User: Which sequence fits this backbone?
């Protein structure tokens, strides 16, 4: 069957959806506020899957998944005030609880979360079009991340359990929470990347207002009871609706102490500017990226093609860590492109529940015309789509397109396409791709494919001062989660990893006293009498 025919028949009839994959509409009428599930009686946002159902002569119809609350400024401020009251200027039960107590609560949450795996995975698959295999991986990776973060906090607390005596001063140095955190994750990893900020924020004693992304809202509904039952009231509060309507009022109060946001730099700038006290706002931002792959003339072409395909097209290229542009040395471009096209031909396209599927429908309606627009712009400036049916669409499905040769006049040269389009540019001198990386507004990662250490070594010394991760003969990626994940320029602010996230949501704080007999006696009495939860030598096993 020709590719065009496959694309034309990509969507199933209702009866062709496997029973195990079928989903019932979820009409969410609840939200979590101050430890209670409140009933929403206002307007709701309907949710449609990127997956359409074929109705024969009637054409395609998007699968209806349910609805969620469209909240107003009032509910937004209620959620913020609940978090502010729970923090209570640092006197609340959560910020003053011991590390051991907070860990026990999060461990309870993980236990409850695991029980809801099937429901969350199925909604992940249907809401954002992520394959069943990748949806399961996202859930399991999130659970592993929480467990690893708990273990990292235990290590951090063990280190902090001792006293330091220096220059006549006794001190105990620990980490304290920052206050109220506003956490907003991205639609491409609505569970995992949201929880990589939400969980560390909670563990460090902050209280949280949590807004799911525009796509991937319903999948959080099965976890609301787990949040309610695992944490004291006001520690976690949820918000739903249009960001412009509910987030602006929160930021303008100046009561948000930490902004954890993963999305576009434009939106992040707007949010930061709305805060009246910017120097009091700690920002943890994962933003745009235009990660380049650089294929040197001595590269293992099969390896480079395989990693480039995975790097550019995993989850349809909708990853900030995806390879967004490839620079291939002119001497090997013909062989590289031929194998790249052959590789795309072998990628399985279809519905998220199909085994081994890699290319699925896109959740963003506006992404379809956007991708068509950047491809048309590239053609206008001299490029071509060189693979069969590249860029062909059907509903929310877009077949991968290889666009060659791209140049700096094209939007694909500078814009993050965030979809299944692979721009390829030839180069003769290594200075050309290096200059691209230097001139780019973004500085997250880069991949280098080659074998000559005398060529790669000096490249590394340049690239590590432009991006925050250089991948040798491998695709760009986030994991393992113990590694730092951040970026330069407009790509990030703050660092996320299992241990770094704990630090970014807290601040080093110490209790100090002059080394005198009276002070030693006082401190000893506080510790032995367990009068303070901060000043303590308790050791977590």
Assistant:
């Amino acid at each position: 069957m020709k590719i065009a025919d496959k694309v034309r028949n990509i969507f199933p009839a209702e009866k062709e959806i496997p029973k195990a994959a079928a989903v019932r509409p979820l009409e969410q009428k609840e939200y979590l506020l101050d430890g209670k599930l409140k009933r929403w009686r206002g307007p709701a946002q309907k949710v449609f899957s990127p997956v359409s159902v074929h109705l024969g002569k009637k054409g395609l119809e998007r699968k209806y998944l349910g609805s969620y609350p469209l909240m107003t400024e009032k509910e937004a401020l209620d959620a913020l005030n609940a978090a502010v009251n729970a923090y209570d200027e640092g006197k609340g039960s959560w910020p003053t609880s011991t590390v051991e107590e907070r860990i026990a609560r999060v461990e309870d949450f993980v236990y409850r979360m695991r029980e809801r795996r099937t429901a969350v995975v199925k909604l992940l698959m249907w809401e954002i079009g992520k394959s069943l295999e990748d949806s399961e991986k996202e859930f399991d990776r999130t659970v592993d991340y929480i467990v690893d973060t708990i273990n990292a906090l235990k290590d951090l607390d063990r280190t902090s359990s001792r006293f330091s005596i220096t220059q006549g001063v006794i001190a105990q140095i620990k980490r304290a929470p920052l206050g109220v955190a506003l956490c907003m994750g991205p639609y491409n990893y609505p569970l995992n990347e949201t929880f990589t900020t939400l969980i560390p924020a909670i563990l460090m004693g902050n209280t949280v207002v949590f807004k799911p992304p525009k796509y991937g809202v319903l999948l959080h509904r099965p976890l609301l009871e787990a949040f309610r039952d695992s944490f004291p009231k006001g520690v976690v509060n949820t918000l739903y609706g249009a960001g412009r309507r509910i987030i602006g009022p929160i930021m303008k109060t100046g009561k948000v102490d930490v902004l954890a946001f993963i999305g576009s730099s434009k939106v992040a700038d707007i949010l930061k500017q709305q805060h009246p006290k910017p120097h009091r706002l700690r920002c943890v931002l994962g933003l745009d990226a235009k990660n380049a792959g650089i294929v040197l003339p001595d590269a293992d072409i099969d390896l480079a093609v395989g990693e480039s395909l995975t790097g550019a097209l995993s989850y349809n290229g909708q990853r900030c860590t995806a390879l967004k542009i490839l620079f291939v040395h002119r001497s090997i471009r013909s062989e590289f492109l031929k194998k790249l096209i052959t590789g795309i031909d072998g990628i399985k396209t279809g519905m998220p529940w199909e085994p081994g599927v890699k290319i699925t429908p896109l959740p963003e309606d506006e992404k379809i015309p956007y991708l068509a627009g950047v491809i048309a712009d590239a053609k206008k400036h001299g490029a071509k789509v060189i693979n069969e049916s590249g860029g062909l669409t059907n509903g929310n499905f877009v077949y991968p397109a290889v666009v060659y040769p791209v140049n700096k006049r094209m939007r694909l040269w500078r814009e993050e396409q965030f979809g299944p389009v692979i721009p390829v540019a030839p180069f003769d001198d290594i200075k050309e791709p290096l200059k691209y990386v230097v001139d780019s507004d973004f500085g997250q990662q880069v991949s280098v494919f080659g074998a000559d250490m005398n060529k790669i070594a000096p490249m590394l010394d340049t690239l590590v001062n432009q991006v925050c991760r250089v991948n040798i003969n491998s695709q760009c990626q986030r994991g393992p989660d113990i590694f730092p994940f951040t970026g330069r320029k407009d790509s990030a602010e703050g660092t996320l990893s299992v241990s770094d996230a704990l630090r970014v949501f807290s601040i080093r704080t110490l209790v100090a006293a002059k080394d005198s007999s009276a002070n030693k006696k006082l401190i000893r009495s506080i510790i032995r009498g367990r009068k303070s939860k901060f000043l303590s030598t308790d050791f977590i096993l």
